[in-house]
Amino acid sequence: MIRSPALLLSLVVLLQSTPQGGPSARTEGLQPAAQATAPRAIRRDVPLTNSIRRAYEAKTRDLSGRPGPSYWQLQTDYTITARLDPATHTITGEETIALRNNSPQELTQILLRLDHNIFRGLVPRGGSVPAENTDGMIVTRISVDGEAAELGPAPSGGRGQSPNTGRRLSASALDQTLARITLSKPVAAKSVAKLEIAWRTKLPGGTGGRGHRMTQRWDDTLFQPTQWFPRVAKYDDLRGWDTSVYLGPAEFYNNFGRFDVKIDVPGGWIVSGTGVLQNPQDVLTAKARERLARVLDSDDEITIVGADEAGPGKATAAGDRLVWHFVADMVNDFAWATAKNYVWRATRATIPGKGPIPIHMVHLPERANMFAKAGPITRHALEFYSKLWVPYPFPQLTLQDGPSSGMEYPMVINSNQGAADHEAAHQWWPMLVGTNETWYGWMDEGFDEYMNILSDADAEGVPAKLDGLGQSYGRTSGNEEEPPMMWAANLAGNMYGFQTYSKAPLMLSMLGGIVGDEAVQRAMREYTKVWSFKHPSPWDYIFFMNNALGQDLNWFWYYWLWTTESVHGSIANVTPAGARTTVTVRQDGEMPSPVVMKVQFAKTGPAIKPMANAKMLDDATALVTWPVEVWFNGSRTFQAVLDFGARPIEKITLDPSGRFPDKNPADNQWPRK
Ligand SMILES: [Zn+2]
Fold first, then answer.
1. Distance from the CA of 442 to the center of ligand 1, in angstroms?
2. pLDDT at position 225 over 90
3. Residue closest to 609 by CA, chosen among 634, 567, 642, 584
4. pLDDT value, residue 491
């Protein structure tokens, strides 16, 4: 989703309220002796938790960062029929789920995600509040392999207890966002179970709610259902069943599978959604079908259904009710929208190695201005990100107008032009690379924000603005409210936006400062390829990047992902001695970094002697680098010897590209201003 204005505001306040000046001069004298003199212990590995150790033992993952020889994931294939009753704002549905247990374990229970229960007033919520409470997801029938389950209340002890051992097929906690089916017979390893579920849910409307996804309709004329059907929770090799609670802000972790969805709505209502429409001859007019046939011919925008074509027989085929049939082959969710008077326009994007695909836009006639630039922005996003990572993997993308504007689902973005670039980028993660967003929001929103910086620059035809980002983290570092990026996003509190959205681009800015931005992007391109339609963990990302970049960067990952430390570098002293100059570089933070210095010489004078670890930027400017290893002996100071000959040095700048987190860049200059 897009970062909410409230989160953005809190970040700005946070950055502005942090003192810019370095505190070291004032506080050094107050530090306990041990703090001031102890060697800096630099950690050079990353913590391995129980879950990743288990995966390594089972060979489902390994230190190559690629899926291990025994990697597996569940697949869930959904067949859903749903009927919308606009007058009661209710969807009534039946679904069949083929649960393909590709794991080597038998399943004794199945967890169901009933996200719409967040609209009941009584379940835990994060910073998201709907304007209207509802009765939530009402499940009326569950069967497993043809056997009906007893639908009961939560077992005593509530959620988190082990399932009852009575082996009676039953479902519990159906009023929570995470429900449990206790099986009478386990689902054997490598077998398929068939779940059938009947349900209904009312879509919340109103105004004054807070958070994306918390308002799903405008009156009784536009509906934008998301997380609208019972889903099988994720079961993986790291933690078994994913029991993270859906609180509103942090997002999802879903199984991949095929969706076959039939949506029954009043005639005249346009339906858009994940997948490809299977029955245009049943639901569209001949005129609309002719117009659709021309969408891929050019970058022009074509009106499929205009504002003047409302009602059955004009906007759609004739009939009181029409059933729209969509199929998506391999996706991790399904979202849709429908309105009594959507305008439907379409254009195309040309995907490298694949050819043109349609971009659909459905919006209310009076909101056309919010979609005026959506086509070109979305085309640029799909084409640019296809080149940056891997080609856009899906057969279409649709922008849906409605109360939730800034949210992503497979092939669908609930967005106008404002967030079109950001939401389109989500098609790569988590829609293609299925990360666990609930725990590791930075692998989703954070990587997305990094892509957006590159896309914005490409659209403007300017270099990407990555300089300065890494350094800026020094101003946030030290805030006690900041959780490390590896802490579950559900626990991030006030700094959820910073932890999940803002910090990853800062981290990748520093990584680019070490290995080069192009190398970062090349490695992430490979990571995207290898983990397409799979579920990488942070350790897979870390070790994949180390291997792709040919460097042991565990020190880097440790400080960025598990701590809130910074580098806090400075030039402490400069001592010329003949043709050599010794620069004393100091690091007061706990995170180490390479030493990178820009050295500016007098325009004239003796020849500048080359140094092996330096390159000339122009006739009188050198960039000189020492690797991070110079800090591994624990010293907080490093004597950098400049051996450029007798040409006078006029100015030295530490970290000239602003890539390393620093509280006070002013002390990176010599002579001091
Ligand atoms: Zn997002």
1. 10
2. yes
3. 642
4. 86
